[in-house]
Amino acid sequence: MVTEHQQKRWIKEGRGQGYLKDYKPWITVRDVSSKGRSHRVFGHTTKRTHHLLSDLELAIFLLLDWNPLITDIREQFPLPLNTTLEISEEAQISHPKVKDALQTITSSFYVNSQSTNQPSFVIRTKYTNSLQDERIVEKLELERRYWKSTDTPWYILTEKEIPSVVLNNIKWLYPAMRQSNTEMYDRLNDYIHIFTQYPELDLITLSKKMDQAYNLTIGTSLAELRELLAQRYFIFDITKDYKKIKASEIKLGNFEIWEEIRHVSNQ
Fold this sequence. Notes:
Pfam families: Tn7_Tnp_TnsA_C, Tn7_TnsA-like_N. The protein is α+β, with helices and mostly antiparallel strands and 267 residues long.
């Protein structure tokens, strides 16, 4: 439950306002009970810590943050209370309320992208079994009607929409996305040569061969390749299990992205 006093205080604090690193989510992990699992995760798109209230939110966030077309991700995005109250009265659906305190409706993610067809859209995450609850469906209808009134595309995503291979790849790459070792840039030609020399070897086998060839500790080359892939110096088909990709399937990334990485690293 969020009291009316708390909501007024949150508005003064700037919650639900701002963009990129300056955005403050309406609800943080400190504001919710211990039910389920919540996460505080650094966002590479926004350069700030995101507050995610479930494993499903984490999964979708990772997919969004990996997508190069996404330009901003605002989680726990609040809808204006006065407007949703009007919608609830018009739809004859009771507005979320705890005791006498009206509750602000939030959307899981408000997303901006470089896509000309869909420069912004909203995602509501829900586990499949929760959609059997009539009251939850009613609250979703209020949310849907609000975003329809603003001509903003709105989607419900469940655990069934998360491609497991893509998610596992991103989970493997994600820890290396924050690293910025400029020395790796200077080794690109070495890796290109090795990829050309052993095109049919999978990533794991190739990494072991490199460790042996250069007398490195087992796992060193795989860690370096993970960083190069995470930083997108090299790219591969994210829908294919990283453990099964072959050297011939690893391609050079975008030169402009390399230069941006080097610029940030040198600041």
